[in-house]
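R.M. (postdoc): so does anyone remember the format we settled on? I'll just put the structure tokens first.
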């Protein structure tokens, strides 16, 4: 099962870079002069390295067919430019959070008010808006503790032991759930409090299916703040 991947994106920075011409972006990435247009990294979380994304962006530009290098990025054909748009959104992120989808279910599902019978689609912006609303009513310690207790209950219901002497992975797994759930709480708190937009995707997901601020990357119509 693939990882779900979340980024917090500074939309103002994204709008600025999308308003640049492709040749300006190319020069900026080749010369490393575009690094000033990255928002400040939130050191509590991982973020893609400058040099890696510079290579990804240049590769995405090289893969474009029949385009005017003087054209603004936002004016490119959206169906064929989603790889580039995704890389530029990642470039404009302050932080990244990722988790194996099966684990993420343990963190999100118990918190949502109603889940129904359908499986959760973690690429849906609606789920993350509802999750953020619910987290606003609790604190980090309470949320993390509820995750661990729910995990313990699920294990016991399946007849699995909770004795470290019988399963040496119990304590490491418990600590991992606690650490990941706390970092997820802080990540969503940052999203809610700082006016950043959520970029949502999954490993191996086609770029056009990633979602930024409630819209598919392939359906971005224009910049909001330029």
């Amino acid at each position: 099962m693939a990882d779900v991947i979340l980024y917090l994106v500074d939309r103002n920075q994204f709008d600025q870079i999308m308003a640049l011409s492709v040749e300006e972006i190319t020069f900026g990435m080749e010369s490393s002069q575009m690094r000033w247009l990255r928002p400040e990294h939130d050191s509590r979380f991982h973020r893609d390295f400058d040099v890696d994304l510079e290579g990804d962006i240049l590769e995405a530009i090289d893969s474009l067919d029949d385009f005017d290098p003087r054209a603004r990025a936002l004016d490119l054909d959206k169906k064929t430019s989603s790889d580039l748009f995704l890389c530029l959104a990642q470039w404009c992120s302050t932080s990244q959070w990722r988790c194996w989808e099966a684990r993420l279910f343990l963190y999100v599902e118990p918190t949502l008010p109603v889940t129904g019978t359908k499986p959760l689609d973690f690429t849906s912006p609606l789920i993350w808006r509802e999750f953020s609303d619910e987290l606003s009513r609790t604190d980090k310690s309470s949320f993390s503790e509820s995750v661990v207790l729910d995990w313990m209950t699920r294990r016991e219901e399946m007849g699995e032991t909770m004795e470290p002497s019988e399963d040496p992975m119990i304590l490491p797994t418990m600590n991992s759930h606690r650490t990941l759930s706390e970092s997820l709480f802080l990540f969503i708190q940052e999203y809610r409090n700082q006016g950043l937009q959520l970029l949502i995707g999954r490993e191996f997901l086609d770029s056009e299916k990633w979602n930024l601020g409630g819209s598919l990357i392939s359906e971005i119509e224009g910049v909001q703040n330029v």
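R.M.: ...and that's the designed sequence above, right after the tokens. Also worth knowing: The helical segments are 11-18, 22-31, 50-62, 82-91, 101-108, 125-135, 140-157, 170-193. The first helix runs from residue 11 to 18.
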